Amino acid sequence: MKTKKNFLLGAVTFLGLTAFLTPELAFAQQLGISRTNLQRHDISVLGYETIQARIDFEVNSAFGMHNHPGEEVIYVLEGTFEYQIEGDKPIVLKAGDVLFIPAGKNHSARNVGDVKATELATYIVEKNKPLLVMKK
What we know:
This is Cupin type-2 domain-containing protein. This protein is an alpha+beta fold. Helix content is 20%, strand content 49%. The protein has a single domain (2-134), classed as Jelly Rolls. The strands form two sheets. Strands 1-2-9-4-7 form a five-stranded antiparallel sheet, with helices on one face. It has a five-stranded antiparallel sheet with strand order 6-5-8-3-10, with no helix packed on it. A hairpin with a 5-residue loop joins strand 1 (33-42) and strand 2.
């Protein structure tokens, strides 16, 4: 009985960590991009949470088309980015600029400057869904 409980506890822990780390696994596949999770909290809207992360792009790095199960609010901390939101013209933003990406909208980002570029990404998303879904 104790072995079964330990197995179940381990499985639940693994699934919880996998759900939280899934974005990092996707980022790890994108050479030159790193993500640092800063905070994650439930919000007053039932079934939603906010997640905040710092995302660093080395020179010439890019993150492909993807979407989120909620809104993303971006604040560029340093460098120059080109963002492409599906259906819109590309937009270039530099340190101090902001961008709002609607829920479920495919988008991509790339560092178009000659120095590291960093963004502060704040997500307001549905809980228990993958934070990031790559477009196939």
